Amino acid sequence: MKWSRCEKKHGENLAEALSLFVQIRLKHQIQRVEESADGIDPTPNAIDLQRLNKLERDLLRDALRIVKDFKKHLASRYHIGS
Fold first, then answer.
1. What are the CA-CA distances from residue 51 to residues 46, 54, 81 (Å)?
2. What is the pTM of this model?
């Protein structure tokens, strides 16, 4: 199967978005474990938006937009209702 430039770019953008999500999530998990008395993170998947700096918030917003656009593309292509 031959991929178009647009499809390759979408794939690269999705990979970068996933990488950002994982990086932010891991950072917050580490912070919560370090701050907890028992070393247990009760909310391993939560991201505290108040702890993000402006750059991180902007990057997260862009990453979420990429995922949203991809979701719309899939819904359109495969005729999936939202």
1. 12, 10, 35
2. 0.83
Which residue from 30, 24, 14 is spatially nearest to 66, judged by alpha carbons?
14
**Is 24 in contact with 56 (CB distance < 8 Å)?**
yes
Say yes or no to pLDDT of 1 above 70: no
Helices (H), the chain: 5-35, 54-77
Please give the Cα distance from 71 to 73 (Å, whole number): 5
Helix, strand, or coil (residue 11): helix
pLDDT digits (tens, 9 = 90+) for 21-48: 999 999 999 988 888 888 788 888 889 9
| CA angle, 72 then 76 then 81, to 5° | 80
Q: Which two tokens stand for residue 66?
A: 């990429």
Alpha carbons within 13 angstroms on the beta-carbon side of residue 55 total 1
